[in-house]
Amino acid sequence: MLSPAILLSSQQWAQATFGSVQLGDPRRVQRAVDLAFHLAQHPQASLPGVLSPAGLEAAYRFVHSSHTSYEHLVAPHLQHTRQACHQQAQVLLIQDTTEMDYQAHPTTRGLGPIGNGTHHGFLLQSVLAVVPQHDQLLGLAHQEPFLRQPAPEKESKQQRWKRERESEVWERSVRILGSPPAGSQWIHMGDRYSDIFAFMRQCREQGCDFLVRAYEDRCIDLLVEQGETPVPPRSHHHRSPTLHLLEVVKQMPIRSSMWLELKSSQKHPARKALLAVSWQPVRLLPPRTREANQWRPLVIWVIRVWEPDPQKGLKPWTGSC
């Protein structure tokens, strides 16, 4: 495999990524490489925009062939990316969900509701691997398409916990990627949708770290000061008087500050924001559900980054994780 630090040409990248795809015929493999080469040269273009009429017709035959599948096409790229992750000292595994909207194709079958339920399509969970020290993109480490399943009417909370839930895709991605090699650090990252105790728990079980943006006002206890040894987690059957995460975060002292360049938007001009930073180790208690009955608390660091004194007339920048 070519080193991920080498800058490949479009042709080299297409061959390295799709040259080993298993499609049952070397002509189909070459077609996959050719398509990838043309699209890599013009990433924003459509197939008609980069192919000749004859090439476009051949491409349509290729994608409609029963021998061609998404799973086969993406497999070599995922494998290369995962191998590259094992060669790095630190990797960010950035995970998010994308809505694939097929509302303009009403006759397409096998889809489900997306958004607020007025459109149909499917959801795509992607994990992007990045080396932060060099801003180096390794590629997709995992990707899973799935359909949203409407919740049954009058479903109880206990019934909901018994069936497969959409949120499980986050922890499933962590489990599939597994553990980092000895001496390496993998950090799973996600937005507010990833504030799921099971997701964070799965990261710990795989020997990974995580950085998620807080959404739930979770119960915490046994705050410890910096430099102290965290108290070993107890079963949540022995809960001490608890505090709520978002209340504690607002009371944490400022420990540092930093400047952040904010880009312009339709509502605000570009500007610099002076941000305050605070952090505190806490014990995060598991949810009170039958599924989490035997789960143990997680000792984590909670970080708050916010703008305490914005310019007059401007909305303050806020963020927490």
From TrEMBL:
UniProt-listed Pfam families: Tnp_DNA_bind
Location of the Transposase Tn5-like N-terminal domain: 11-66
Protein name: Transposase Tn5-like N-terminal domain-containing protein
Natural source organism: Dictyobacter kobayashii
